[in-house]
Amino acid sequence: MIGPGATGSRAPGPLAGLSDAEADETGGNALMPLVDVVFMLVVFLLLTANAVSYALKVDTPEAAGAQAHEARETVVLTAPHGGRGWQVDGAAHATAQAARRAVVQALDARPDAVLVVAAAADSSAQDLIDALEMARQAGARSVDVAARPLGQAAAPGQSAQQGAQP
Hints:
By secondary structure, the protein is α/β, with parallel strands linked by helices.
């Protein structure tokens, strides 16, 4: 019975005569943690649903089948290393400007050629940057970078002098 001294209007049941603190201790509000988890899950799903609209579309290449690797013409620009200067297709050049002129001439003669910037492991980063800048100034359409790790021996068909080059 609810009378003037009653503190609440609790429905009749096993926990009807307990205070709120006693009901919590005995499991009267056992659904509250579950409600909290469900609420957090709903909030998480609402927040992540908006992320899909901000995603970037990426066009991935599709292979129609196996294709043979085509041999391409190359112009090799070797960065200075081990006391050697710039080289273009094996020809030594005293300065970077002379090497750049040689790269421009080689690319003019073979416009579809790929410029390969070869750098040894002991080449400085600045030499590699200079070589890439030289490729940009020469108007190279396609540039590859090749490097030989420290301590790697030359290929069996190369001589000791050729093996020192990247």
